[in-house]
Amino acid sequence: MSDHLFEMRGIRKSFGGVRALDGIDLQVRPGECLGLCGENGAGKSTLMKVLSGVYPYGTWEGEILWQGKPLHARSVRDSEQAGIVIIHQELMLVPELSVVENLFLGNELTLPGGRMNYEAMYARAHALLKELQLDDVDVSLPVKAFGGGHQQLFEIAKALAKDARLLIFDEPTSSLSSKEIDVLLGIIERLKQRGIACIYISHKLDEVARICDTVSVIRDGKHIGTKPMSELDEDSIIAMMVGRKLETLYPKVAHEIGEVVFEARHVTCYDVSDPSRQRVKDVSFSLRRGEILGVAGLVGAGRTELVSAIFGAYPGRSQLELYMDGKPLRIRSPRDAIRAGMGLVSEDRKRYGIVPLLGVDKNITLATLQHYASAGHVDSGREWSVAEAQIASMHIKAANASLPIANLSGGNQQKALFSRMLLTRPRILILDEPTRGVDVGAKADIYRLIFELAKEGISIILVSSELPEILGTSDRVLVMGEGRLCANLPNENLTQEQVLAAAIPQAKRA
């Protein structure tokens, strides 16, 4: 009998004649953590949807063995009953329901007669959260009362409540702080010790190296190889993923920095739910033509609130003065900002970027529809040709331009959003976490684009939680902490330690 918990053999899956998976093999033992790596669009999510029953048995070819026996899951419930639970990148929690109600949603403990056994669920919830070192959580509170790190752990508790023997983590740390990431990886280590197997999907290869025992790489729907992590390093994983060696992730291009073109003065943003609290506190800065201005800081520093207010997209109350070429600028909405020559690629592309069911072409042209319209009618032929040109120039992988953008990988969705903003011909482009959830190959493409745009004289404000990204791309770095501007540093031999030291208030370091 096999010592594997599960095996996938020769998995094939097609969509409308397009082969998404082409003979994938995968195996995991109890207590093993397998890193699943590949570029956006490589087929990782499709493969996991096959394993977890999202794509039911009969819609794909090949074989899945669970503890040596064929698994014919025709639904997610079937796979969960076997012990396979997937934790998605977008958390599947209901914000208004309590923690305990979320943990047992669809899996409720009941008394004879079908009534809810709340006493048992509360006791089980406390026990599950204690395993995850969350002893102090009031499980009667709604999920929305807790931050992203806690919510990620609630998802794990929810999976454990289903007696999971295999946990699939899909980009679990994309919205977590470094401290929360450490907690999560420590929990995965303890789960492994209990014999629970894990599949860890992440573009953060340092995490893969730290937590995974084995790494499987797929590219363009094909299995490239599986090796013990002890035989790999980050560079060799990248080479397997992209089919080539990336000489440098940040291919800096010399670009001229000109005169000041934009100024933001005294930016102050008030909390949406508590207007007495300031999220951004009197921040002022300038931006030069062709400059890449990095904005760094810890989680909650106010970076997203700052750029949202500048773009007219902050949902709460804000006060600020804006100047373009020395002249006052009044921005009351994103429409005003775009007309003034500004563009924004949001950190949350699912919520504020893409329109999921619209085609790739219509998502790309959404901000410039007036250019293809006459007498109230859109020239669809012209719109299509513009979108097709953008898809080609940005190397967006899509079977056709009218395919719903929700079907594209995260990296290709991000490139489409770049295209949308670039069609507005911005003088200033604000990029808020532009490579979040994007694979290393697509990251390199995005960095190349950023340098090319700067060379063309476009000024860029780059917000990022990843310090290597800030230091690898920026000409100058603004460091924020607790809503304030803590430092304005030229990026000349600047180190991560210097940025972090500026980001942490003196009182916290004492």
What's a quick, concise take on this entry?
Helix content is 33%, strand content 25%.
Task: Describe the protein in words.
With 510 residues, the chain is α/β, with parallel strands linked by helices. It has two domains: 6-242, P-loop containing nucleotide triphosphate hydrolases (Rossmann fold, 3-Layer(aba) Sandwich), CATH 3.40.50.300; 257-341 and 427-439 and 458-510, P-loop containing nucleotide triphosphate hydrolases (Rossmann fold), CATH 3.40.50.300. Helices cover 33% and strands 25% of the residues. It contains 18 helices and 22 strands. It has helices at 44-51, 76-82, 99-103, 118-131, 148-160, 178-193, 205-211, 234-242, 303-310, 334-339, 349-353, 360-365, 380-393, 410-422, 440-455, 467-473, 496-503, 506-509; strands at 6-15, 18-28, 33-37, 61-66, 69-70, 84-87, 166-170, 197-201, 214-219, 222-228, 260-270, 278-288, 292-297, 318-324, 327-329, 342-345, 373-374, 377-378, 428-432, 459-463, 476-481, 484-490. A six-stranded mixed beta sheet has the order 6-7-8-3-9-10, with helices on both faces. A hairpin with a 2-residue loop joins strand 17 and strand 18 (377-378). It is globular, with a radius of gyration of 24 Å. Residues 506-510 have low confidence and may be disordered.
- Mean pLDDT, to the nearest integer, reads 87
The major pleated sheet works out as: 6 strands, mixed
CATH fold call of the largest domain: Rossmann fold
Over all CA atoms, what is the radius of gyration? 24 Å
